[in-house]
Design a protein that fits this description.
Blueprint lengths: L4 H16 L10 H4 L12 H19 L10 H7 L8 H19 L2
Helix pairs in contact: 1-3, 1-5, 4-5
Length: about 110
């Protein structure tokens, strides 16, 4: 479980930063919204919603189960686009996404 520590910490940082930016929703979207077949649910959710309701829970499940980390997480580039409107306020969000990418890459290499 120790090898997952960096990723788990980065996911907590992501949640904290989304909350600080006012991008954390109190109520979950409907199951239909979450069932989008589009990458990042771009047709039904804002990127922060995808992070909150799909990405973070899936990563937490992989961590809890000691599962296999998929290669090439690469969510930082999407975050750069999605949070560009935040200007300087979005810098830390993008940094955290990069940290998640690097941690996931390290875990994928081990398998």
């Amino acid at each position: 479980m120790q090898r997952w520590h960096v990723l788990a910490e980065a996911l907590l940082m992501l949640e904290q930063e989304l909350r600080q930016q006012g991008l954390w929703a109190a109520q979950p979207p409907s199951p239909a919204v979450l069932a989008s077949p589009q990458p990042f649910c771009v047709d039904t959710l804002a990127f922060e919603g995808w992070l909150q309701w799909i990405f973070i829970p899936r990563m937490a499940q992989i961590i809890e189960n000691g599962g296999v980390m998929p290669a090439g997480c690469n969510i930082q580039p999407m975050g750069e686009q999605a949070f560009a409107h935040l200007c300087d306020r979005g810098v830390e969000l993008v940094r955290v996404l990069g940290r998640i990418d690097r941690a996931a890459e390290q875990l994928a290499i081990r398998f």
